[in-house]
Amino acid sequence: MPTKIIAVANQKGGVGKTTTAVNVAACLAAMGRRTLLWDLDPQANATSGVGLEKIEGASSYRALLGEGVLQDKIQRTAFDRLDVIPSEVDLCGVEIEMVRGENHLRKAADLIAPVVAANSYDYIIIDCPPALGVLTLNAFGASHGILAPLQCEYYSLEGISMIHRVINPIRESGVNPSLTLMGVVMTMHDARTKLSNQVVDEVRQHFGDLVFETVIPRTTRLAEAPSFGKPIIHYDSYSAGASAYEVLTQELVDRLEAEKPKDALSV
Fold first, then answer.
1. Which of 44, 167, 223, 258 suits a disulfide with 87, CB 3.0-4.6 Å?
2. Residues 36, 32: Cα–Cα separation, whole Å
């Protein structure tokens, strides 16, 4: 199977975006898939979430500006088959500097192409900033599809609606004609509240088969894991959060590696 590139994105912050990117990447690696996590968020939470320090000059900032190659930024993690391209605060400057160049929305796609051609990874997961700026749009330009985490609250639908409005212009402009919304992940679910269950039902009615069956619970262990620099399956493998992300990742793999993907994956 060719390398699949997945952008994990939602313009609304605090919806479990980075948690999903880190834990899906870790679960893919644990399943035997060679996985690269590209942290494109200047906050660098995905970087620290897999146990790496935020080091000046370690991000893809210079490469995105045409200085160097992306392969030189790849670092090993402590977890088998999981590598990372770290982030740091200098990526904030990309939003200003990249727009001055030609084809500025294709920079990430051009950078990742040699990595894909080397056939070193089965999956590349891109953690996007919580905004539809230049970095996120570059991730969309480089990706086969978007995985959108959605918190179980009513305002969370706003972030997904913005992503919907961006997909068609990205396709029609020629930046990425085949971009799709791969799926919606319901996160921070509290089964004890009526609100959480109502939001899940409403989102399923709106998006249908695009919504994954697996719902990610709101748990203390999931919240703790990043402070120890570990994905949840390595921090507490028997926790409800670990089980949920393992099942979610299997769902994702089943969708992407099936012989006949669901028609619903095209938006």
1. 44
2. 13
**5-50: per-residue pLDDT in tens?**
999 999 888 899 999 999 999 999 999 999 999 999 999 999 999 9
Residue type, 207: F
CA distance 201 to 42: 34
What is the DSSP pairing of strand 35-39 with strand 75-76? unpaired
The answer to whether the pTM exceeds 0.85 is yes
- Which residue segments constitute the domains of the chain, with CATH numbers given? 4-265 (3.40.50.300)
* DSSP per-residue letters across 196-242: HHHHHHHHHHHHGGGEEEEEEE--HHHHHGGGGT--HHHH-TTSHHH
Q: Are 170 and 176 in contact (CB under 8 A)?
A: yes
Q: How far apart are CA 109 and CA 98, in angstroms?
A: 14
177 pLDDT more than 70: yes
Residue 169 is inside which H or E element, if any? helix 157-172
Rounding to the nearest 10 degrees, give the CA dihedral for residues 22, 28, 30, 36. Answer: -60
Give 193-220 pLDDT, tens digit per residue: 888 888 888 888 888 999 999 999 999 9
> Greatest CA separation found in the chain?
52
Q: What are phi and psi of 221, to 5 degrees?
A: -65, -40
